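> Could you send the Chaperone protein HtpG prediction when you get a chance?

Sure thing. Input:
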Amino acid sequence: MSKQEFKAESKRLLELMINSIYTHKEIFLRELISNASDAIDKRYYKALTREDLKFNKEDFFIKVIPDKEKRTLRVLDTGIGMTKEELEDNLGTIAKSGSLAFKNENEVKEGIDIIGQFGIGFYSAFMVADHITVKTKALDSDEAYRWESDGVEGYTIETAEKADAGTEVIIKVRENTEEENYDEYLEDHRLQEIIKKYSDFVRYPIKMDLTTQEKVEKESDGDSEDKDPEYKEVVKEETVNSMVPMWRKNKSQLTDEDYINFYQEKRYGFDKPLKHIHMKADGTLRYSSILYIPEQAPYDFYTKEYEKGLELYSSGVLIMEKCPDLLPDYFSFVKGMVDSEDLSLNISREMLQHDRQLQIIGKKIKEKIKTALTAMLKNDREKYESFFNNFGKQIKYGVYSDFGQNKETLQDLLLFYSSKRKKMVTLKEYVEGMKEDQEHIYYASGDSVEKIDKMPQTEMLKDKDYEILYFTDEVDEFAIKMLMNYEGKTFKSVSSGDLEVDKEEEKESKEEKEEFQEIFNKLKEILGDKVKDVRPSKRLKNHAVCLAADGELSIEMEKILQSMPDGAGMKSEKVLEINTDHKMFKALQKHFASDEEKVQAYANVFYNQALLMEGITPEDPVAYSNDVFKLIEE
Ligand SMILES: Nc1ncnc2c1ncn2[C@@H]1O[C@H](COP(=O)(O)OP(=O)(O)OP(=O)(O)O)[C@@H](O)[C@H]1O
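Output:
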């Protein structure tokens, strides 16, 4: 059986390829510039390997020249050029990459960054062009050639005139359509913008003739100021790209200022970064990265609109503006870039073929950020607290999310306000400061430090000199529940039914309960399902009542869950605690045997007062108010 070759309808294939591979038309310029840069690289390589060739860096550049009248855009280079055969081979065969062949044939050395590998990029120019001309003269050749094509009907090659070696690609820009504005590819500022975005770190200068306004110098009559200055348009050749990628430089060559400038130039944020991390890896997977911890959270940071990610470059050419896979969610505030020459790109260069490489880089990045934050916490507490103020919530979400997978990584980065030290403390610091027989890490939840400070439930612990951590973010208690314990110490809410502070006092409290059993039973009967229990309190000193919660769900958590669309059914097991030494309890005792109506009012007022102190509105404010009046009327 004879083997048949596949036949391809090349016209269709070309059309398909051009219009379905790329998401953004503007990348055609990135592709042409990358080809030009590859061509110069090849010439540089030849110069390294041949004695008779010199490579004077200044002579090698890429130039981008738009012409609005002719609707042409020219991209020229002083690279290696192409012979007639190479033109046929490389531009006449789709998916044939002369650059990949060059890389394979030559042992490409350090300092050469050949980008092309698929043999596709060139044709992306047909997304914006209806006709392309390539004029080229190969190094060491006397002949120049012109390749022309309008994309669908094939191409022609004929001899041409060209003085020096190199290539000039002339694209005839399409006319605007209703959906598409092609004129922008003839505008200086737009071209500049595209070059900066994708090709800023191409190693050779990308030049453009740019028009600027210059003041006309007039004959002046002494020192009077020119009230009516005249300007003229001046065209100057300028280099548009920055060329040297900062991340390739050695750290020792760079100052803090350089890193700040880079952050601002790249518009990673409008603030100043708190810290930068510059890393390079030279193992099997080579990459460099500059990461920043910003000073302030962007306005949309805690919204769904915020997109995390790092810029991803392949050999200095931008592949992705925000590559999310390089950052875990809990470090989503980190900005910066990664450049690697070892990425396996897909043909559009918009994605990677394997995410394994990203996983490896991402893991290292995660470790570096953690190390940097830990060092900041240790060596520059003020800076760390400012960081935590902005991004701490994200770290807490990190502890809580993914079923607590990352809690160990993150637990030592947490800070909470301490009742005792009146400042932020780490969990480690809390545990180190625990009283000898203290078993739990105590915390109190509320809207603000000020409000928590006044919570009746904190009275007794403070009195006995226990330290309490104040949880003011909604996520705090959820995160801590996920953490379960820290260095073997479990977390306990000041509102929990059983504080386990003083065993002796607890015994007393039991005895007391027996003494007032009848009253407490009655109160429970009146309040019904609203509370799980009514008990005498030992934690209260000056206040009459408070709410405590038995079980896992605290009152604060219930409030948060209630505000969520599907959290309405979640209820905490509320316990009404009453201070039996308080005047109000004594008043209740007085009426207990004689006035059923008053006892009802007391029960409701006690309960609703406790709710109010938790920031919860009574279910029936009118009934509550009437009950209050009933009690003060005498
Ligand atoms: N300006 C140029 N100077 C010299 N050779 C060029 C130039 N532009 C293209 N070529 C040749 O044409 C080939 C095909 O280019 P094309 O852009 O289609 O693919 P590529 O750059 O090899 O790969 P990729 O699709 O990954 O960009 C290149 O490999 C190179 O050999």
